[in-house]
Each structure stands twice: as structure tokens, then as C-alpha cells.
Amino acid sequence: xxxxxxxxxxxxxxxxxxxxLVGGWARKAxxxxxxxxxxxxxxxxxxxxxxxxxxxxxxxxLVQGSNLSRLFATIFAIMAFAGGLFALNRDNVVEMTAAxxxxxxxxxxxxxxxxxxxxxxxxxxxxxxxxxxxSARTPESARAAMRYALIxxxxxxxxxIGVVAYAQQTGSIDFVAMTPDSFATWAILVGxxxxxxxxxxxxxxxxxxxxxxxxGTVFLSAFTTKTAVYVLLxxxxxxxxxxWLGLYMIFYGIIYALLENDIRRILAxxxxxxxxxxxxxxxIGTEMAINGAAAHAFAHIIYKALLLMSAGSVMYMTGGxxxxxxVGGLFQSMPLTTVxxxxxxxxxxxxxxxxxxxxxxxxxxxxxxxxxxxTWFCLLAASAGVFLHAGIKFPWFVFFQKDSGLRPKDPPxxxxxxxxxxxxxxxxxGVQPGPLxxxxxxxxxxxxxxxxxxxxMLELLLYSGLAxxxxxxxxxxxxxxxxxxxxxxxxxxxxxxxxxxxxxxxxVDVFNTVKTKLVSLVITVATEHxxxxxxxxxxxxxxxxxxxxxxxxCAYLVIYLFV
Amino acid sequence: MTKKPKQLHWLVRPKTxxxxxxxxIALLALVTWLGTTVHPHTKFGIEGTPTFYSxxxxxxxxxxxxxxxxxxxxxxxxxxxxYDD
Lengths: 563, 85
Prior knowledge:
The structure holds 2 protein chains of 2 kinds. Chain A contains 22 helices and 3 strands. Chain A is mainly alpha-helical. In chain A, helix 13 (287-317) runs antiparallel to helix 14, helix 13 runs antiparallel to helix 17 (413-431) and helix 16 (373-399) crosses helix 19. Strand 3 of chain A pairs antiparallel with strand 1 (77-79) of chain B, so a sheet runs across the interface.
């Protein structure tokens, strides 16, 4: 082929840096066009390695196509488009540039054929997303961005160590299926898992994402965790450990979201919950499970962004209100935002006729087919729990509950259009799963709409709803947060450092006091004995010496004569 | 002269809320009944018993709320200004 092939990722990454150079309508047009051009480029990527580049002693496979990589790259590009549309009225070109560079880097990971290319785009994602968090330009977002960057740079270092060790060990940098049976592959797995929000370092996600701007969080929800799911599906499918980590993430997300008051932090915990389903799917590792995890990632990006768009719209239209305790009754003046939020909530809960129903059913079915009773019962309980913490809790406390008296209108047209677009996709993919099936890595004719399965899901979800309203008093929101693993580095380490500094300062004080006293003592003693009249310093007349010499000589004479 | 109370949105009027509760309970009864009319293939035994999905959904959710509120919440909940101080 003689045609010049531009990697789709680079279109979005370099295109992002054109945004600050143009203004007005040109910038808006570019914001909408760049993801679409990238999407078109993604669909020209065929199977196998498409572009290589020499780097040191290695041949980097910058672009490699497969069904799985195209699925993730496709949804990343669609997300960049909808996110750009939603943020079209936000006058912050730094955030938009960073967000597009971040999205482009995620596409770069999805289309990477070797571990070094994965690592390069992985780190670019960390930089882009950190700038997106920081772009809210509040003291809280600056601090959260710093903590976020530290965790992701740490994850990047672990990944780099793994990649170097892997290249040393195998002589290959190809990104293919691995098993965690050596230091190298363990380090790579840990590097990947940090970005999924797996324990123990889960807290970076609910710490940082809600501190971004109303538009920034929408972008953040999509890329980091889902690229991590993609690399797990390629590299570590079938690793049993992932099932246990995924189950932990699922219930961690539910329990913490139930206790949370910040609207977007509820949804951030819910991301970990949903990614948990995908990690379980990767751990099961069968064709059905991998299809389920990939489909769930696709569907999840859409409905989670939709939920955060509705939360962002509330924040935008109420002058920054972000706590459940500050809002309520908004359905009366924000009908479109309410409906979009409800559609997102139904989709995340896997309600029949929504996208989540298709994708989550596949993962659950994979556990069922493999006879994994414990996993299946946990996934079932978790499906009910998702309805509890996101499906009802989010719309109820934001749009209904006690009337806050606030009457904000629906947001500007572009924000509404983005919500309508994603609402449509949530329902369309739920009603017509065919196009999604066509994107999946393995051919499938899975039928989620059996009478039995629809009834089962309705029973599970509606009784979960009953539990919510029966226990509504316990669900009442309070002005609290729930401590997490980040307490160790936000509180314990900081307090420890403060106490250690104070202890060292006290020691230095005591040391200085003792030292001063000792020196004074030496000076006093020395002065006493060595002053001009002191015993050891005063001068003695020569006569006294002569007298003593005489005494000694006499003593000598006496001893000589008589002894 | 008494002040005329502000008209509530129809969705939050006590009458509507009562209707929603009645309708909701009827819907719950309906789906439970519908669930008993089909016989899915079972693998683990208990999931094939009638009304399983109804009580399982309710009980596990109550369990999660109680655990969140009275176990984790009691130990780990702090004021939301905790890290600002």
C-alpha cells in the first residue's frame, strides 16, 4: 500500500492541539468533527498489524486491528463526540484539548499491538486526564489532580517495570495473552489493575472524578477504566483472581455509593461497581464472558456518561450544587434532564429494553453456563444492588425526594442534544442489540429476551425498588463522607509526617537546650579555673618556685643521708 | 383571610403518591405471579423455585443497606469537611 496511513489516535491527539489555535464557530465545528473523522479512520483499520515503527531495537506496532480493539476504539470515539457536544458551551479550551488528547490516547491503547505502544499511550492518558481534573480550576480540583497523578504515575512505573522485565524475559514486546506466573506479568497485571479501580487503590477514582468540572467528569468516566478492561481482556482473560477482585469492586461500589451524599461521587463509586462486572467477565474468560464484558464496557460508557451529563446539567444550572442534600424536586423544571437521568439509571440497572440488560445478562449468563454458583448468586445480588444505589437512589434524590424549591431550567441546547443522543443509544441498543453483537469479538446469537429472563430481571429489580422505599428513612442523606483506602495517604501519612516533624523539632529543641547548657557549663568551669585569678591560670612569684626547689633539694638531701 | 396554598405538582400530591404505592404493590404482585408462570432451566436448584427472584432481590438489597448503614457506616463515616480541616 502506498497510501499514507495516519493512526486514528493521532488524529484526535494532534487535532486536539488545533483547538486552542482557532476560535468561535471554527473551534466548535472542529470539536464535533475531530471525533467523527477519528471514528471513520478507526473503521478503516483492518485485522492484524497495520502500522509499524522502529524504536530503539524494537518494532512498535502502532496500529493493530481486531474486533475487540475496534469495539473499544469505536465507543471511545463516539464518547469523544458526545462529550464534545455536551461541553460545547464550556469556555475552557484547556479542558477540551486535554480531554481529546486523553480520548485519543485511549484509542491508541485500544489499537496498540505491542506493550511499549500500550505504555506510551497509557502515560499520555494519565497526563490528559490529570489536566481534565485540574481544569475545574478550584483548590480542591488542583489537590485531587495531584493525588490522581501520583497514583497513575505510580501505576505507570509498575507497568513499565513489568514491560521491561517481560521484554528481557521473553525477548518480545507483543501484546498478547499472558498468565500471571512471573514477576514481569504480575507487574503488568498490577499496572493494569490500578487503572480499573481495583482494590486496594480504588479510592483514586471517587476522589478525583467528582472534583472535575461539570463537563470534565463526563469525559473522565469513559476512558481510563475501560482501557484497563480492554487490556485485561486481551492480556489476562481467564485469570481467576480477576473474578474475586471484580466481585469485591462490585460490592464496594454499591456499599460506598449507598452511603454517599455527593451526586457525582455516587456515580463515581458506581463506575467501580460496573467495571467490577467487566473484570469478573474477564476473569471467567469464556467467549460469552468476554463478549459480555466488551458489550458491557460499550453500553456502560454510554449510560454512565448520560448519568453524569444529567448530573452535570444539574450542577451547571444550579450554580454548582453537587450534593443530594442541596437538591430535590428538580423534575418540575428540568423535564428533559430528568428523563435522561432516568433512562441512564434504567440502563445501568439492566432494565429490559435498555442496553445494560443485554450486556449484563451476557456476563451473568457466562457465570451460569460455567456452573459458578457463588459468582452467579453474587452477580444477581449485585444486579439488584445496582438498581438500589444508582437506578433509584440517583434519580430519586436529585430529581424527586423533598422539594428543594430550586427551579432551574433544562440546560442549553447542546447539552440537551448530547443527552438525547445517548438516551437514544441506551434504548436503541436495548431494543436492537444486533449492531452491538456485530461489534463483539466472538460471534453470538445470545437471546436475552426470553420470557423467563425478562420476568426474572423485573422481579429482581422491582423488589430491589421496594427495599429502597421501605428503607427510605435509612437512606436519608447526611453531610458525611465514608473513609476509604485513601485515608492512609490523605490523613495517616500526612498526620504521621506532621507528628514526625513535630517530634524531630522537639528533639532538636531539647538537644539545643542541652548543648547550650553544656557549653555554658564548660565556659563557667573554664572561666572559674582559668580566669586571671583562677587556680589554674594565676601567675605565681619566682620566689615561691625557688622555695619549692629548695624544699625538694632538702628532701633529697635528707633521703640521701638517712635512707 | 387564609392564604391560598401553592398548588403542588400533580406527581407529588398525597393522592398521587398513595396511588403510586397501590399501583407499585400491584405491579410487584403481578411480576411475582408472572415469574411463577414460566419454568426456566435451573442449574443450582434454588433459583428455579417459585418467587426466588422476588425475595432474593428484596432480601439482598435490605442486607446491603443494613450492612452499609450499621456496619461500614458506623465505623467509616465522617463529616464531609473531614479532609478540609
